[in-house]
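Quick one:
INPUT:
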């Protein structure tokens, strides 16, 4: 089975799509990949700061939601990162040349659009090593984003 381009799964555009490819997807999980290069957004001479791992995880969650939506014949919708719990990273940055696999697993999903995902980032070249980073990501995807934003701004 051919996997879709990850850019079709996330509601981001241009350089704000931080993930490179979709590696695998299942009923409750997804794995995406990013290769850290000097041209990677947020990269300096040494790599990408570890705090960007939270956004890698959030975009992998968005890709999971986008994949589910397209599988149902629905459009990809905007969602919101509410927060992260216990983000831990073993290094201060992801080094230039690193190939990262971002794994997300749906821990819970409410009918109201709230969800929580167990996430970790692995070095794709050393998949048996301990994860480079771990966290629980909490998200919200309203049924109608425009209506939700209107209510929030009132």
């Amino acid at each position: 089975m051919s996997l879709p381009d990850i850019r079709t799964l996330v509601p981001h555009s241009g350089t704000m799509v931080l993930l490179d490819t979709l590696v695998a997807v299942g009923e409750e999980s997804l794995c995406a990949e990013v290769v850290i290069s000097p041209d990677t957004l947020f990269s300096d001479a040494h790599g990408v700061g570890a705090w960007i791992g939270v956004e890698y995880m959030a975009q992998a969650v968005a890709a999971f939601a986008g994949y589910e939506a397209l599988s149902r014949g629905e459009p990809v919708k905007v969602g919101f990162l509410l927060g992260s719990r216990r983000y831990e990273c073993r290094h201060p940055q992801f080094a230039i040349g690193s190939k990262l696999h971002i794994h997300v697993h749906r821990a819970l999903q409410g009918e109201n659009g709230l969800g929580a995902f167990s996430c970790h980032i692995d070095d794709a070249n050393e998949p048996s090593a301990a994860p480079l980073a771990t966290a629980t990501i909490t998200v919200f995807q309203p049924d109608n984003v425009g209506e939700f934003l209107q209510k929030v701004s009132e």
